[in-house]
Structure prediction request, 262 residues.
Amino acid sequence: MDSLTDIIERFIDFTAWEMTKPKAYGPFHLIFTFVGLAVLMFLAWRLRNISERGNKILLISVSVFLMVTELYKQLFYYYHMEDHKYNFGIFPFHLCSVPMYLCLIAALIKPGKVQNGMYAFMTTFNLLGGIMAFIEPSGIVHEHLTLTIHAFLWHLSLIFVGAYLLMSGRCAKTMKDYWGAVATFVALCALAFVINISLWEVSEGNINMFFVGPRNSSLAVFKQISEAAGWYVSTALYIPAVCIGAYIIFLPAHLYFKKKSK
Prediction:
């Protein structure tokens, strides 16, 4: 009888359907993006008035979906892409990975500053990450169909959660919400740095969660900065730059709720 690992590996190999990597703003990219956004924006709008119990069920459901699909991705890389070696570059604690945890935690904890900070983070920083992934899609297109679909659905999920929380009026109303999002981001950056340091040797330096170092950043512009001036300079510029981007996402909703309150 085959072991569980043999069954999993055969399943991964069976679903490793190759494809020509979709071109940026090509048919696959545009159709998947606009159809997906239309469906999820409509769904977010329809769900905006659900009860708090319904809100918890929705967030937990999103978290479970993300966890299951992330597990598939991790197994795909381990068995099919990396020849039974773990790729620490895809350790699930990137900026766009954390909603997998935050949706679950926010749904289970009591209302308060921590929950509000998580909600605000997902409507600013994660919404920014989801949008940027479709504007610059090089990180979400792959040479395997299932990985590409996973990446598209993942980042659409980030946009959905952010849009839903905004439409339901659960956050992004005041500057206090924005600073709560910043505090959450800084705390996650600190945790990411601890993870990077803790797994530095076992990963052979191939880990850089949140791109905060000590490995040089691989992001455009910040890569050149880290190579020229060091990862700490790159990180010191990267964190406020992301906060500014999140503020740009936050501002329209803030102005809308401010006007509505009058």
In short: The longest helix spans residues 231-261.
